[in-house]
Amino acid sequence: MKPEERQEFAQRILTDLYHERYIETIFNAEEEKYQKKGWTLKSGLWSPWFFNLRPVGATPRIVSDIAYAMNHLVQDEAPGLTQIVGIEMAGVPLVSAIGLAHGPGCQLIPYAYTRPLPGSKARTPAEAKEALKELNFKYGQKELVEGRFEDGDVLCIVDDMVTDFGSKLIAKSILEFEMERRGVRNVDIKHVAVVLDREQGGAGEAASNGMYLHSLIKFKTDGLGWLKGVMLPGEHELISDYQNNPQKYQDEKLQREVLEGVSRARLK
């Protein structure tokens, strides 16, 4: 797929995601609690907007578009790719759709997916590695990755989005653990593909760990420009300022001011 064609697809997908409320802001959130409080991300950062692709199956047209574009993305940017691996939960339906995508240039791609670490609430790569050390696999215990692998596989981890890259490193550790346990050798686990990159440090963290982050939508670089005529002016201004300086908005006083201002505007 040519870069300009992928950009056109990405722009259409992003606009549809916003209209269907898979991208929510404190301006358009359906639930009152998010209108009043915003969101706290897994990274611990407060945010006035949130991306949730888990219920996207309710809009199969968008799923089809994402699958088509992502099938091309992983083919184009992960040389020698042999399989895609979804991160539970959002990545699981994604890899099945991507692997089976139809359309010009699409290829069938084998897929697998990770499972949660049993009995663990690991939220950081370091905690995950410690949890993996403590695992004692016995006969009949469920595997941590559902799929089949061969020596020399080139894998691409797939998820809906990336903020700080932590969950991707956890998935990599799980895959490395499983490959060693199964005796599968020389597996390449350097590639990660996401539908949306919040551009809040994920690419840099990937690079510092010798990995490559591939994203269909770069929210700060491209996405905000695409949404300028779609969002309300004040909404676009706030989300743009937040993306340029998320740390500024970690001040609770400023959060209250922003939320109260949006609440007043909603009542007019």
Give the tags.
single chain; alpha/beta; Rossmann fold; globular
Task: Put the structure in a nutshell.
With 268 residues, this protein is α/β, with parallel strands linked by helices. The protein has a single domain (3-267), classed as Rossmann fold (3-Layer(aba) Sandwich), CATH 3.40.50.2020. Helix content is 45%, strand content 17%.
The CATH topology is Rossmann fold
Alpha carbon gap, first and last residue:
46 Å
What is the residue-averaged pLDDT? 94
Q: Uncertain segments of ≥5 residues (pLDDT<50)?
A: none
Estimate what percentage of residues fall within beta strands. Answer: 15-25%
Q: How would you classify the helix and strand content by structural class?
A: alpha/beta
Helix fraction, binned, reads 40-55%
Radius of gyration: 19 Å
Largest sheet: 6 strands, mixed
What would your notes on this structure say?
The chain has helices at 3-19, 32-37, 60-77, 91-99, 125-134, 166-182, 202-208, 219-226, 233-244, 252-267; strands at 23-25, 39-40, 46-47, 49-51, 83-86, 111-114, 145-146, 154-162, 188-197, 212-218. With 268 residues, it is of the alpha/beta class. Helix 1 packs antiparallel against helix 3 (60-77), helix 3 crosses helix 4 and helix 5 (125-134) packs parallel to helix 6 (166-182). It starts with a helix and ends with a helix. The mean pLDDT is 94.
